[in-house]
Amino acid sequence: MDFDVAPFTLRDTAETVTSWLFLIGTLGVLSLLISLLLSVARNGAAGIGIFSRGLLSFLEDVGSLSPRRILALTNLTLKEAIRRKALLVFAVFSVLLMFAGWFLTNSNERAELQVGIHVAFILQTISWLMLPVVFFLSCWALPEDIRIRSLHTVVTKPARRIEIVLGRMFGMSLVMLLLLVSMGLIGYVWIMRQLPTEATSQLTCRVPVFGRLLFVNRAGQPEEKGINVGDVWDFRSHIEGDTRARGVFMFDDIDESTLVLGTEFASDGSGTMQVPGLKFECQFEAFRTVKGSESSIIEGVQAQYTLSNNPREDAFSLFSRSETLRPLAEALRDAQFRTAANRLEELSAKIAADGEAVKINKSPELQPADYIILQLGTLYAAGVMGEREDAALEATIAAFQKATEIGVDLINMASASPDVDGKAEKLSGLHKALAQSLTELAAVLTQEADTLHEHLPKLEVILPSFHVAEFHEGGQQNIKFVPRTVRFSADAETQSRFLAGLFEKLNNANQLVEGDGLSSQLAAQLQSEGKISEQNSSLVVEVLTEQLASGALKVEGGKLAVADGQRWYQFFDSLIQKNLLISGDDEGWMMERDLINDLTTKGRLRVEVACLNNQMYLGMARPDLFIRKPDRAFMIGYTKAMASTALMMMLIIVLGVTVSCIVKGPVALFFTLTFFIVGQFFHGFMHEILIAPPDGGMGAIASAVMTAQHRAPGIGMDVSEATQRVVQGIDAVPRAMLWGFSQIVPDFRAFNAASGFVENGFDVPFAETLIPAFLICLGFLIPCVLIAGALLKFRELESK
Amino acid sequence: MSNDAVIEIRNLSKIYRDFWGRKKVQAVKSLSMDVKRGEVFGLLGPNGSGKTTTMKMLLGLLFPTSGEMTILGKPASDVSKNEKIGYLPEESYLYRFLNADETLDFYGRLFKMSSAERNRRADELIEMVGLGKARHRQLKEYSKGMTRRIGLAQALINNPDLVLLDEPTSGLDPIGTREMKDLILRLKSEGKTVVMCSHQLADVQDVCDRIAVLFQGELKVLGRVEDLLEVRNETQIRSSSLSDAAISDIREVLKKHNISDAVISRPRADLEELFLRTVRESGERPGRRFTTEEIAGKSGKSGGQA
Ligand SMILES: Nc1ncnc2c1ncn2[C@@H]1O[C@H](COP(=O)(O)OP(=O)(O)OP(=O)(O)O)[C@@H](O)[C@H]1O
Ligand SMILES: [Mg+2]
Questions:
Q1: Of B13, B249, B269, B271, which is least packed with CB atoms within 10 Å of its CB?
Q2: Which of A70, A49, A29, A28 is nearest to A161 (CA)?
């Protein structure tokens, strides 16, 4: 089973807090009402007075809490636990550790698995040992105090009952912390000593940056999911090998802080050195459709990362969501802006035709969805281009924005009620306006084609391929280090753009020309300035000399220029298209780029994963590829896991003490255990029942009626509407109760996540584990203390 | 509190109910009485007559079914009254894992007492109850009498104005009993009010100013011990070492007055007798409250020495 890092998340914080407040409020009002009723029932009219006096005195108690007394009671609890030998748990723990050592150590296992087993063993053992202690401590202490009446001597001192509750809770928490910290320390030392030395290096907390996962299908079109290869568990989605299918991971917030130091071979062959870079770690799954030989199975599958920064993809891919607009999307993505302009012209014509059709109530050619995608696509394109803060793009952005605005008006009008005055007329007008704006956009694209091509550059860094073992349980960790200054073999677009940039720079510095010809130093300069290999630089010089001779280039005022006024990149592009610049170096056109500055836009990094083998598939899920930030010390994650356990124990203490204020030990234990078990294992289940659509899930009575009437669930009951409403009303009651119950029972799952992270070698993210756990704990602490204080105050301290 | 009543009880009733709210026992039946400042008040009654129940209601441990009471001028449910109250429960229910010092320190912390004050007071009390040698031993090792003693010490930790003692002498040896009685008298001399339940009638007789006798939750007798035990139809002459001549002289005088049944000895009437009689008669005539005069008269008739 793979560790799914998608962690426990609190629903929207604001929503959670409001629903908490709502619940507390309802609970408060309800309990006040019930106690008022009880008081009146017992004492008649005088009950109101008794009730209000009781309430007042309770509020007074809450207001006059004394830390001194609470501390005295805390202290007492601590002493009691120690003198009553709660610490004997240590003995059990030590014995367990002694024996576990014999069974757990298996040097045949992979290091990271060994680490996982040892860490999991310690974390689990500690929490399983703590649980009975905490349950008994919290459920037994107060009832026992009442039973042997030692509480009598305390409550006849000025100690408020709510202080007793608090003192007990704090004291027990302290005992629990004491136990936890000691066991944690012992456990830590044990892990360190027990693990074989080669495995201790694996004891770290990886800090992953996870991305979003999208897919590109074999035809190169974006998809939500990949292929299902028939796994029962559809956690992973697959991409087909040797096609255009890709898994696309979009990472956010990649910046300097994401960089780690890694080992890299020096380019001059002088050995290795430590350089900053990005560390990618993956856990893909290989899947084959043909029988493999033994060696091919061991070899596994070849996978390849492509880091890409493609503003055109970002800006225009939304259009491809519509079949009609897909050609437009593709042209824009491929920087074929003139083709894109043609597509827009066609689109504009269709929209104009639709405008006519609308007027005479004929059905339009384009679907409503097309209009919506067109509108969103133009909005998005303008937004993404705007983000680049590039003045050269402004005209295009404005044209996209205009189309967007008209698009909005059109959609609004189309969805307006039919009895708006002259709706058809207006709609038709808007169609025309939209068509017009698209024509204008097309004109802008044609005019700005070169600028756009230059200012929306695609950069693709194809990294060397690597193996993914077929049975990845047995495979090695797949870690790829990519140095920040990444060297890669450039594709045509990158190459022409790079050469253009280099030549412009040298030209401005008057370093290209010597007399009528090229500078004799040019080859050497290209090599040093552009870090182009020797073969490649001499190739460039050779080709350009020919071009100069043929008149395609000319020398003018000490500068080199393209004869027909073309831009440099277009010139180089055409050379590459003509296969004149095929590298003589077997590494290709190697060049360097900066991962952070060149490959991310606003911290976004796009990593495409391809599978290279034919008839093989690569399975992946969101957590399968992540970028590793600098690791944290194992101790940090371990401590966080302990903290999360501590919070869970604290919650149990709070619940246990609260329940034990009103019932005896065994009963309190039963209730608290029920809470724990339901909260631990059935919370998800309850939630599922509750969010089931109301017509899908039938209430008990409705289904009883229908069973009696021999009716299929889809048809409904054969009863009058009034009866039906009554039945549904009654059925809503258990639903509401279940809702209330599911809100009252704390979600104990929140506390489990942390140890999962640590066991799997990850750091524990605060936001997704500790903070929700803490909030849940606090959310229960406050009302529980109040409830417990009230229960204890308004009960008689008689045990019989 | 303009008058000097430290405890006022009016029509107090207590019905014990079970979990379902069904009546089990009526432990106290419309009890009304006052305890005055500075007196030693004894609550008497056979086992199960409601003494402990009354005391617990005064302390807010139990809630009355009906009726009213104030204690130190405050309602029984008010915790702040506890600042000036000391309570020794029927059995000493203390924390058995603490030693004497820790016990007193813990209870001291529940009051507004500085640590120096707590220590001083603890030393004083441990000295007073004679646990000097055992102060560092855990309470679970204590004998019954020692437990009583430390219980008393914790009741007095806050130097209370009102002390409620539930059977203070039970479990104590004769010396301990003597000391307890001395202590009660000392508290009285310090101007404190003491309310106690006891079965040791001799003790009650020795220290109490006033007593109330409960029977099956009803107040049967309430009054000053002296008045209740006074034998009205007898005259007692007490003197130290009368000579034989003096005694025969007295006999002469008595003969002259036609008194022939005079016995020259101590009268036998004591609290034990009163107690037994009250209980007996209450059994015969339930629901009846006896006046001091009746009680006194009766003691003359049945207990007079002829
Ligand atoms: N918690 C209880 N539940 C039910 N009945 C009780 C409870 N406590 C006391 N009683 C009953 O109330 C009555 C009065 O009890 P209480 O303890 O007040 O008597 P007491 O006068 O203190 O007796 P003793 O001299 O034995 O201490 C008894 O009948 C007793 O059985
Ligand atoms: Mg009693």
A1: B249
A2: A70
The answer to whether residue A68 neighbours chain B at the CB level (below 8 Å) is yes
Partners of residue A157 in chain B, C-beta under 8 Å: 82, 107, 110-111, 158
Q: Which H or E run includes A521?
A: none
Q: Is the CB of B128 under 6 A from ligand 1?
A: no
- How many beta-carbon contacts under 8 Å exist across A and B? 75
Among B241, B181, B187, smallest CA distance to B205 is for: B181
Asked if residue B108 has pLDDT above 90, the reply is yes
Residue A584 lies inside a defined structural domain of this protein: no
Range of the domain at A373: 315-457
Structure-block tokens of residue B169? 């002498």
Residue A5: predicted pLDDT: 52
The DSSP result for A57-100, as a single string, is HHHHHHHT--HHHHHHHHHHHHHHHHHTTGGGHHHHHHHHHHHH
Least confident of A121-125, A127-131, A557-561, B60-64: A557-561
User: What is the C-alpha separation between B188 and B207, in angstroms, rounded?
Assistant: 9
Q: C-alpha angle A717/A723/A728, rounded to 5°?
A: 75
Using a 10 angstrom Cβ sphere, with 0-12 exposed, 13-18 middle and 19 or more buried, the burial of residue B187 is buried
Residues A321 and A181 in one domain: no
pTM, rounded to two decimals: 0.80
Query: A96-108 pLDDT, tens per residue?
Result: 887 877 777 665 6
Write out the H or E segment, with its range, that includes residue B215.
strand B210-215
Ligand 1 close to Cβ of residue B108 (< 6 A): no
On whether both A649 and A782 belong to a single domain, the answer is: yes
Whether residue A364 is contained in a domain is answered as yes
Last residue of a domain, one of A436, A457, A478: A457
| Residue to substitute in B14, B18, B24, B25 for testing ligand 1 pocket (most ligand atoms within 8 angstroms of CB) | B25
Report CA torsion sign: B133, B138, B139, B141. negative
Q: Give the closest residue to A229 by CA, choosing from A271, A288, A282.
A: A288
End-to-end Cα spacing for chain A: 53
Pocket of ligand 1 contains residue B160 by CB under 6 Å? no
Taking all residues of chain A, what is their mean pLDDT, rounded to a whole number? 84
The predicted structure's pLDDT at residue A698: 58
Q: Which residue has the tokens 């073992």?
A: A469
| pLDDT tens digits for range A665-682 | 999 999 999 989 988 888
pLDDT number for residue B304? 35
Contact of A150 with chain B, judged by CB distance below 8 Å, is answered with yes
> Measured between CB atoms, which of A57, A68, A76 is closest to B77?
A57
Of A188, A179, A89, A182, nearest in space to A653 by CA: A179
Domains of chain B: 5-96+155-224 (3.40.50.300), 229-298 (no CATH)
Examine the fold and report which residue of A438, A457, A476 is the final residue of a domain before the chain moves on.
A457
User: How many domains, chain A?
Assistant: 2
Other residues' Cβ atoms within 10 Å of the Cβ of residue A763: 20
Asked whether residue A215 is domain-assigned, the answer is no
Which two structure tokens, joined as six digits, stand for A239?
Answer: 């991409």
pLDDT of A799 reads 57
**Substitution target from B106, B114, B157 for chain A, most A beta carbons within 10 A:** B106
| Protein residue with its CA nearest to atom 20 in ligand 1 | B48
Would you say residue A177 lies in a domain? Answer: yes
pLDDT (0 to 100) of residue A652? 95
Residue A8 has pLDDT above 70, yes or no: no
Nearest CA to ligand 1 atom 12: B27
Test mutation, B79, B85, B140, B150, chain A, max A CBs within 10 A: B79
Q: Residue B266 pLDDT more than 60?
A: no
Contacts of A55 (CB under 8 A, 6+ apart): A32
Across the interface, do B95 and A158 touch by the CB < 8 Å criterion? no
DSSP assigned state of A680: I
